[in-house]
Each structure stands twice: as C-alpha cells, then as structure tokens.
Amino acid sequence: MLRSIARLSAILAFCGFLTAHVAAQTPPAAAPPPSGSLPPLPGYGPWTKDAERQDGLFTVWRKEGKVYIELHNDQLDKDFLETAVNANGLGGLGIVSGQMFQQEARLVRFIRNGRTVAVIWPQTRFLALPNTPLADAVRLSTADSVVGMAPVVSENAGDKSIVIDMSMLLGDVMNFTDSMRHLADPKDPSTAYHLDPARTYFGPSKAFPKNIVIEADESFASAKPPDAVNTVVDARSIQVRAVYNFIALPENDGYMPRLADDRIGYFEDAHIAFDRTPRTTDDYVRYLIRWNIQPSDPTKKVSPAKNPIVFTLSNSIPVEYREPVRRGILAWNAAFERIGISNVIQVQDQPSDPSWDPDDIRYNVVRWITEATPSFGAEAQLVWDPRTGEVFRGGVLIENVLVRSSGIALDVTNPNNEPAEHSGRSFAVHDDGLVMAQQFGYSAYAQALMQGGNPAEIAQKEAPDFLFGIVLHEVGHDWGLMHNFIGHEAYTMAQLRDKHFTSRYGLSTSAMDYIANNIAPRGARNGDLFQEVLGPYDYHAIAYGYAPIAGATTPQAEVPALNRIASQWSQPQFRFASDEDVEWQNGHSIDPRVEWFVLSNDTLGWCDQQLTIGRDLLRQLDSRFPRTGHSWDEERAAFAYIMRPYGRCAVHAAHFIGGEYLSRARVGDPNAALPLTAVSRAQEQRAFALVDHYLFANDAWNLSPMTLRRLVYSEHEPFLNFSYTEQPRLDLSVASVAAVFQDTALRYMFDPVVLQRIADLPAKNAAGTTMSMTDLFTWNQNAIFGDLRTGAVAHATSVRRNLQRRYTALLAKLAAVPTKGTPYDAQSLARYELGDLEGRIDVALHKTSDVQTHAHLEAMRADAARALRARETYQQAG
C-alpha cells in the first residue's frame, strides 16, 4: 500500500516546475562586485585548515556552523540525483518521518558562473535523439530550474576543485510551509506557520562513496499556534529536519529501459519523445520503474542474479517481528526463479559494524517507526534514475500501528478518516494502509466474539502472519509494481473457504491488492485469514518486468515478447486495475469489480454474508465486552471495528449503480471483450436491494438500546491540559453513524458523472438490459418514502426520518440548484419526485395522529414545496 500512489505519480511530472515557490523563499544571493574589484579567494589550505572534513561522493566541509561541499572539475556540468526527506515527523499531523515522497527526486547539476555555482534542476520529461535538430528544438522550447546560487568560498590551485556554500538548503526547499497549512485556522491567518531563519541551522552531515547527506534543521513558527497541534508538539515553534541527499546516478551496467503497458501494473517513468516513430496516439515513452536484475549466466535455464539485491533489517524493528518481515521480502524470490533468475533477493540484519549507516545509498533498509497519532501504515521507498526508470535503492517504512489491535481510535462517523473539528483525543487516520490496520483489529475482535478469547491476545498471535502480507505488498512496490484492485475477482467464495486452495493461490491473485480478511460465518469451513503467498498475477507481472528477452537490443525490440505476456489480461488470474480505477469519490471509476477490501468474484454475495456476520457480532457485544475490570472503551472500540467494514460493504453495493465493466484487453488479445460492458439491470437491482436492506430500511439500524448506552469513552484530563480537548458528545450517536454511510451511498449514486453515465446507458445497450434514470429515482423513492402511503411512517425511527429529510434536500438541490454537469433528465425527475412526495405526504398526514410524525411530514412537505416554488421562480425569471 504505497501510500498515496498519487504522490508517487506526481514524481513522473516535470522535475523542475515546482521551483517557483523555492525561489520565492530562498534569499537571493547578493550581486557580485565588478570582476576587476574582486578580492582573491581564500587559499584552499588556510581555508580548510580549521574545517571538519568528510570524504565521500563530494567532500563535505563544516566550518563555523555552515556546511560546504567541494566539487572537482569532472563533477561540474554532470547530472546527479537529489532527494529530500524529512527525518522527523509531526506525530501524525501530515509530515511523516522518513516520508520519501514528501518531495519528488530530481536530477541536479552544478554549473559554475564565476564566483558562484548555479544549482540546477534539469528537465527530464522531454526527449529527442541527441545531436539532431529536434534535440536543439527541445532545448530551446523547455526550461531548467535554478534551485539557488551557491557562492564559491575557496579554490584549490592544484586540481582546480572549488568549495561552495550550501546555505541555500536552509530555505524552505521542501515547502513545509504548505505542508503545515492544514494545521492553521483558515479564519485566522496568524495561526499559519512560516520558516523562522533565526532558528534554522545545519544538522548532521554524512559522506559515503555514492552519496552525501546534509540535514537542515528548520524551525517554523506561528504568531498564534493553532490548538490542533497542542496534543502532539509544542506548538510555538516546530522544528522539521530536512535531509538532502545528493546521489551518484547508476553506472551503465547493461541496463536497458523496458516499455510499459497499461495491461500490466508498473509505476512509469514517463517522457514525451518528439521524435517517436512510428506515430501512435501520443508521443509518450513510458519506461517501467524497475531494478537492473540480470542473470549471471544467460545461457542457463536458471542462473543466480548478477547483482543480488540485499535488504537490511534495521535494529528499530521489534525482535518478534523480524522473521515475518524477512519472509515477506524473501518470498519474492519465487517469482524471479520462475523466470530463470535465482537468489535475486537477500536479507541481512543490521551489521554491528559502527561504520554502517542506513543513510548510505548502497543499502536497502527496512525501518520501523512509531507515531503518537498514526498517519499511515506502511510505505515502500524506492529511488530511481528519472532518465531511464532504473531503480537503484529500495526499502520499506513500517508504522507500529499495524500490529496494534486496538491502536487506532476509530471515528465511525467519519467515512474518509479525515480529522474531525473536535479531535483532541485522536486525529482520525487518513490512509489506506491504516484501513488495513483497522481490518486487522476487526479480525481480532470478530474472532473473539465468534470463538471466545481476548482480542489483544488473538491479535498478538496473528500479527506475524498479518505483517508478512503487509511486507509482501510493500516489497512488491519496491519492484515497481502498482496496486491491483481487481485481483480478488478471480476466486469464488467456495475457493476462499478451502484452505488448501488459499494456501497455494492466496485470497487474491495479487499481493498488490488491498485484501479483506477472510472471515467466514460462525462454524463454517474457512481458508487462510490473510494473504500468505504470492498470487498468479504477481508471477505474471514479474515476468513482464524482469524476464530476459533473448536477442532484444532495444526497448522496442522487446515489445513482441512483452505483448504476449500482457495480452493475457482477459484471464481473470492475470487482470490488472489500479488506483485510477477505484477512485469512487467523484464517480470517475466505472467498474464495480475494482474495489478495496472485498473478496470473491461475487462481491455482492460476499458483502451480504459479511453484513450478516456484522449484525450477528453486534448482537453479542454486551455479553462479551468490556471484560471485568476493563473500561467501556473496549466495547466502543469493538463496535467501531465491526462497523467500519459493515459500512464499507454496504456502500460498495452502490457502486454497481450505473456501472460498466472495463476491459484493458486490446484487439487481437485472446478472449478480448469490448472496452465497456454494462452491468445488467438485474445485478443493479440486486445491488440496490442490498443498499436498501442494510442502509435505508427502517430496521437497518435497530441496535440494542443497552449497547448504545454503553458506547462511551474514558476521559482523562492531564494537569497541564496539553492532550485534552472536550468532545461534543460522550456517547455515540447511531443516527450519525447511519447518516455517514447512507449519505456516502447517495452521494455516489447521484454524482453528476454517475448520472451522466446512467443517462447514456440506453444509447449503448439494448432496451431494458440495463437500468434507466427513471429506475434510479423510482428505486430510491420507493425505498426511502415507501412507508408514507402505508402509514408505517408512524413507526419510523429517528434514523429513518433523518434519511427522508436528507433525501428530500437532495431532490430539492437537484431540482432547483443542480451541480454543474447534472443531466436535464435527472433535474426533471427530481422535480417530478418532489411532486410525488407531496402526494405521499398528503396521504400519510391523514393516517397519523402522532405529533412527531405529523411534524416530520409537515416539515418535509414544506421542503419539497419550497424547492418546487424556487424552480418555478427560476424558470419565470429566465
């Protein structure tokens, strides 16, 4: 779960286009005096006499609190790589220790200009054949970026090397000012953080054979610190340690870039090649991001790797978890052995040698960190050459929260895990990796409720197997693999119940999926609980990215062989669909098979089963939690762990509404389908019935009154009050919980893009084979307002009444002030349904004498009438 693949994708964009804000925040160097009046530079010997020296890729000098680097002639006008990583975090408030992708890696070049050196970020996006007119045109049409101007402070008369002042790195090069913007109160600019140069200085520096590291300890101050950070850091001044790494690019050791294909999921190093031939639909050349892995003897069927990749387990990893981490890394050897390369991956413990340092770019390090407020779960960390896509360093960062069964304070009223307005007890987590941690917690509590036992002890027992799957996933990212969120779709529920099958093929065809726990109904036969092996797609993807292709001397020459691999997309075990296919927030994603944390090729059936399990577990809470002597927080935590996957599955069903199955197969591929095949109307009806039953129905949220009276938390107020913010409510509102999931489903179904898709379905399919816009409105109208005509509304719960009021407001907005892009048919039907609602309310008012019901109906009628009048007024004015 390389968090935020969106961040990683941004690395593939312009390497220099973000420099404007850097230039604005880095003080410009003073203009040099006329050349005739320049005093001589200090002699190299006298200048370096009292300086501390560190030898490495560049010689690093430290003197009087400043850091300098020495550049030789052959290091000027030469490309290196620069990365910027923060060495500490803010306890989960948006800046994470060791976060590789806080800022993208870029080429960096040093160009001397008299007594200064321009530090340049060259552009790497645009390509043309060297020494051609097109190459000249590219140079004329694009611009590099200047990070800063470094003064030359001394020159060695012997070898003409120069020493430059690197104080430019004390500016906000990493743009932490923007990263902390979310901490400020938007209504009070004085709470924003800005770099304080007076409290900013150089931290440690290091020099290694292939890289040097310079740390800038930057202080950010706020005139009026926001309350949001009081629980984690001293808010008056926050120090962020920015680590700049200057790295030698890999030598050409037989590496040839490999071209990407959208049927196989690899991160891409994308370029625009203006001389690309033959002409295709675009001018992009997309290289895989991958390692230089070659057999030592290509003539043998299986040969050891020429340069094995060694991962080092940091001493920060708890001893009890080192073995599953080691196994998760080494498991990938099986995929490489299948393509004839053995011993590709090795694992070592951190050496006891005091000279060993994890900052040495030659080492691939797995590290373990802790955050007071967890902000992610795990992250792959890889560094590659932006010219070719060649990876030359990898690693994994693991947050301790992953193995803490109750380490996340879940806010079940917050579907996107965004920090709540009043969140003093904890910031809700906002990362898909942490959803995996929530899944782990759910597994422990579910088993405790089904089979008995202590959830903490169950979690402790199962943590190694769970962690193995996490590491398997992250190391897959290190090989360049993207997520694959359709892998679960290849297996049947019967296969998932067969331990012999799951131990061989896993719960999904790919470890790169976000894989739900395989929880079976009480007493049922079941397979493995977690993914414990590589899946068929993982072997398939490694073959595409790393299999040697005999006789190919150019990337283009490899394409026929690679196409034979990629052309198998239509086989369920080899399908690929990634992040761009699962973004449900705005209706863009079209294929309901592509989803997180679901299982089987019948996700509706699987979710129906899981929702039934969830209801059963909720009925047992009071008899099992809290245990004697434990606080009520234990039952509240159990409720939260059960409710999150419950809501996730119920909302997933909504994604079938207006859905179409998307095929990446190309013309000529075996069994290739058309790119789009509509979800059948019967399947859409089935999905909506599930939404109605588990989210909308009057009895969907009939939780035990006793349970609701027990869902409180323990309040602790430290003497200095640094970690306490009063919560709006001590209890948990079932109405709020229900509203979260109901509204999430409604927002998706009535998103303008989904509405447009539904409007277009009849034009692409035979009449009656898929749903219509009328179906969407009729299904919701009957599900939400069906009890008005029968008189059953008198027995509606507050959850049901709230849903009816909110849906009325949704119809009113569609009719009177629709969001841009809403089809006219949807607007017309919304108006029609408001009129229908008025009629239903008139009938219901004659069937009830209950004051609460009467008031509810009158208020809803007024809302509908107001929207209808507003629409009429708008039309008359128009």
Written account of the structure:
The protein is α+β, with helices and mostly antiparallel strands and 878 residues long. The protein has 3 domains: 5-30 and 41-247, no CATH class; 303-709, Collagenase (Catalytic Domain) (3-Layer(aba) Sandwich), CATH 3.40.390.10; 790-878, no CATH class. A hairpin with a 2-residue loop joins strand 5 (106-113) and strand 6. It is globular, with a radius of gyration of 30 Å. The two termini are 51 Å apart. Mean pLDDT is 86; it is low at 2-30, 406-410 and 413-431.
Shape: globular
CATH superfamily of the largest domain: Collagenase (Catalytic Domain)
Q: Largest sheet, described in full?
A: 12 strands, antiparallel
In the CATH hierarchy, what is the architecture of the largest domain at level 2? 3-Layer(aba) Sandwich
CATH topology of the largest domain: Collagenase (Catalytic Domain)
The CATH class name of the largest domain reads Alpha Beta
Strand content: 15-25%
Please report the total strand number as a whole number.
27
Category by helix and strand content? alpha+beta
Instruction: Give the mean pLDDT.
Output: 86
Rg, please?
Answer: 30 Å
Secondary structure layout plus pairing:
Elements: H1 5-10, H2 19-25, H3 44-49, E1 52-54, E2 59-63, E3 66-71, E4 79-86, E5 106-113, E6 116-121, E7 126-127, H4 133-141, E8 145-155, E9 162-165, H5 176-179, E10 193-195, E11 201-208, E12 211-222, E13 237-247, E14 268-273, E15 284-288, E16 290-291, E17 303-304, E18 309-313, H6 322-330, H7 333-337, E19 341-342, E20 345-349, E21 364-369, E22 378-380, E23 383-384, E24 390-393, E25 395-399, H8 432-451, H9 455-478, H10 493-496, H11 499-505, H12 536-546, H13 555-566, H14 603-624, H15 633-654, E26 660-662, E27 676-678, H16 681-696, H17 705-710, H18 734-749, H19 752-764, H20 773-790, H21 798-816, H22 824-845, H23 851-877
Parallel strand pairs: 7-14, 16-24, 17-19, 18-20, 18-21, 21-25
Antiparallel strand pairs: 1-2, 2-3, 3-9, 4-5, 4-13, 5-6, 6-8, 8-9, 10-12, 11-12, 12-13, 14-15, 22-25, 23-24, 26-27
Helix pairs in contact: 6-9, 8-9, 8-15, 14-15, 15-16, 15-18, 18-21, 20-22, 21-22, 21-23, 22-23
